[in-house]
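Collaborator request log, item 7. Partner lab (contact: R.S.) asked for a structural prediction of DUF4038 domain-containing protein to inform their binding assays.
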Amino acid sequence: MRLFACLLVLTVLTKDVPAQSLFGHGRLQVTKNGRYLQFADGTPFFWLGDTGWELFHRLTLPEIKQYLENRAAKGFSVIQAVALAEFDGLRKPNQYGEVPLKNLDPTQPNEKYFKVVDSAIHMARQRNLFIGLLPTWGDKVTKMWGEGPVVFDSINAYTYGKWLGTRYKKEPNIIWILGGDRPAVNSENDWRPVWRAMARGIKEATNKQCFITYHPAGGENSTSQWIHKEDWLDMNMFQSGHGGGHDVAAWDLTKRDWTYAPAKPTLDGEPNYEDHPVNPWPKWNPDNGYYRDYDVRKQTYRSVFAGACGVTYGHHAMWQFMSAREATINYPDRGWISALDRPGAYQVGFLRRLIESRPMLARIPDNSIVVKGQGDKGEHIEAFRAEDNSHAMIYLPIGKTITIKTTALPKRMTAWWFNPKDATSQQATTGEIKELMEFTSPTLGKENDWVLVIDDATKNYKAPGK
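Returned to partner:
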């Protein structure tokens, strides 16, 4: 009866939502230059993710609908969610009383549990959202910390991967994400054979019509150090995380991934979450405070401008779907409903809109544009230009005066100041075009971050923003 009620609710939720056109462009793939993402017909794709890790485990179907509609309206394009969830996800049932596996056995998935996963995937597709589907959280392969238990080996990982791949092979809005906050290998253990087997199962079941990446633990290691040359890995990912304090150099991690061959896209799959306590391990000092929307903007803009194919946002209450039903984890300062409309969630949508306002698949990171005013850590500036020099963008985390070199910029220039807080823009004074030019942001100092957008005046680009 509970499953019947679940499916009845799903019918009510989705019957009036028309299918949309995003997935009519073909499957997601890597661009020819190996740096960015597009659909099969060449339509560009910007990965703007949200970490809805416990989506299938902790929410009802009406709550899933509420969350997905909110994220779609803000411009998100990927929801990262876990089939075998982190928080006792094998033994604690979902909101319909179902656990994902029978007898903790990956070769015995529970059909009733996966019906909820099916429903969430379908609701996401109707709202032009990919589900970045983690088959399992990493503690089911690599204990290290967390609930576990470890249930996977190379044999049943293949079986489970093939079962999942078969189930979802016709769904156009699946991005496969292996891992789950764990390394693929360390000095003592090598778990790559397990992940390799799971990926093989997915690829065989989908006839290789799949896109696969891997979500690692936080720190300096990216997937590029462990599994870059694995033929199943389509995209690298790193996690600049929450424990390194403000202004972890996510831009350097992006640029390091650019040095590996063959070229593969990369992105920060988990930068500091909005409203997450700063450095809460092993014990949080409340004087450290929380990461807020300014921290989110600095990290997301700088990794994207450094060459990432997108970025993932997260909110500390949202990833765990904190509510009165659940125990709190690491001092959230609000519940997930209250977190839906936090400023950072809107502002990352402005970032996507800005990048998509100009041709986006031939971006080249180029900090040589800035010859004076470049800072480090909280003041570090990131810049990129178009391959054909038709436009450039420079992110200033602190309002200031900078000097730029124009030799690789348009000869006829229009310049704009774009405000990442509210997506408004104003024209910048350019004056006579010289080899070195000064620009001063409209406001100065910390929390007055700006983007200087420089366009070829002959292209007739519209002002970026609203």
